[in-house]
Automatic annotation (TrEMBL):
InterPro entries per UniProt: Poly_export (IPR049712), Poly_export_N (IPR003715)
Gene3D superfamilies named among the record's database cross-references: Outer membrane lipoprotein wza domain like, wza like domain
Organism: Rhizobium sullae (Rhizobium hedysari)
Signal sequence bounds: 1-26
Protein known as: Polysaccharide export outer membrane protein
Domain of life: Bacteria
Domain Polysaccharide export protein N-terminal positions: 82-161
GO molecular function, one term: polysaccharide transmembrane transporter activity
The keyword Signal is assigned to this record: yes
The keyword Signal is annotated on this UniProt entry: yes
Length: 392
């Protein structure tokens, strides 16, 4: 009777798809890496690849995290050639040598004109007609007015000064003291200077994200990174849009960690080892030391550098797809059975919304299987003993 019960239990377990678990084995993650949905055998499965984290890859990722804006936009140089634009308010002062000229009287030899550059880039000057201002420097505009007044005014001279520069505004919004359109001056201005004009960030630098939109390009960086890395404090250009958002940074830790949770950074920086420690480490009785993984949507430049151009395009052909902001799924693998992982892990930065997964050791499934089998076998044996006693 006991033998029959054991056979029935084993057959039942053999027909099951698998044992209860908290997630995939390391072998399953490794096997699915770099495979298309068809190869995985699951429709619409996400395509990803695995990168083993060593000193080179950790340094590459760390360097990119601190230079995101500079890589996308470049820090640039000075303001270069500052020109007049549509909507700019100018003051034009015209002088004449004579007292009976077009712009002079016996009381005054000058006339002041307030003009605003129109959408066609022109503005009207009395007796000179429409003058092109857009795209010209103040000096070039002065010369253009003088040329238009030649043979009309008496030995004219002109001064053009800028009152306001609507064409050189930068829009600053979000978590700042004074959301507004900030006019750029004639000298070079960087992100932190423009933010200061808008009242500064209302969030702590380690939880304030600065997004800069320029044309069709968008870049986001932590304000803390901009402050600490001068190359990230790039020069702002007219028409740029800056948005500051407060987003307390968090990561999620799953698997055989002693604490499965979404956890706040609670600090300016966080590396992999610190993040694992916040999750109270891996369970000694269940963790696979070779199965520490960090799941992330990574910047395309980083993915290209880590995988190489050929591998990257192979994955694109297999269905590798970006998220809504153009980042690609990548899985970083850490082998904690090697001592140097404790060094490399200190230099690998955890980013906002990262998912750390600690896989279970294969022996855990065996132990779980034996536990499941042992319980009904014991019950079956007990029942068999009772049955024999009754028959006796």
């Amino acid at each position: 009777m006991v033998r029959s019960s054991i056979v029935l239990i084993c057959l039942a377990l053999a027909g099951c798809q698998g044992l209860p678990s908290q997630g995939p084995h390391a072998d399953t993650i490794n096997k699915d890496a770099g495979r298309s949905a068809a190869e995985v055998g699951r429709r619409n499965a996400a395509v990803f690849d695995i990168v083993d984290v060593d000193s080179r890859s950790a340094t590459l990722v760390s360097n990119y995290v601190t230079t995101a804006l500079n890589r996308r936009f470049g820090i640039g140089g000075g303001v270069g050639r500052v020109v007049i634009g549509v909507g700019d308010h100018l003051k034009v002062t015209i002088f004449e040598a004579g007292s009976d000229g077009l712009f002079s009287t016996t009381e005054s030899k000058q006339t002041n004109l307030d003009i605003v550059v129109q959408p066609d880039g022109m503005a009207a000057i009395p007796y000179a007609g429409s003058v092109q201002f857009e795209g010209k420097t103040l000096e070039e505009a002065r010369k253009a007015i003088l040329a238009s007044l030649a043979n009309k005014a008496v030995e004219p001279d002109v001064i053009v000064t800028s009152v306001s520069t609507a064409s050189r505004n930068v829009t600053v919004s979000g978590e700042v003291g004074k959301p507004s359109q900030v006019p750029l001056s004639l000298v070079s201005e960087q992100i932190t200077e423009v933010l200061a004009k808008a009242g500064g960030s209302q969030a702590q630098p380690y939880e304030a994200y600065v997004t800069l939109v320029r044309g069709k390009k968008t870049g986001t960086a932590l304000l803390k990174s901009i402050i600490e890395n001068p190359s990230e404090d790039i020069y702002v250009q007219p028409g740029d849009r800056i948005f500051v958002s407060k987003d307390p940074r968090t990561f999620t830790i799953l698997g055989t960690a002693n604490l499965n949770a979404r956890i706040n950074f609670g600090a300016n920086d966080l590396n992999l080892l610190e993040a694992v420690a916040l999750g109270r480490g891996g369970n000694d009785l269940a963790t696979d030391a070779k199965g520490y993984f960090l799941f992330r949507y990574e910047e395309p430049d980083v993915v290209m550098s880590l995988l190489g151009s050929q591998r990257f395009h192979e994955l694109l052909n297999k269905g590798l797809a970006p998220d809504s902001v153009g980042r690609y799924p990548i899985v970083y693998r850490f082998d904690m059975s090697h001592p140097d992982s404790l060094i490399v892990g200190q230099t690998f930065p955890v980013k906002n919304r990262d998912v750390i997964y600690i896989s279970r050791h294969p022996a855990v499934d065996l132990r779980m299987f034996l536990g499941i089998v042992g319980q009904p076998v014991g019950i079956a044996a007990q029942s068999a003993g009772v049955y024999n006693n009754i028959n006796d």
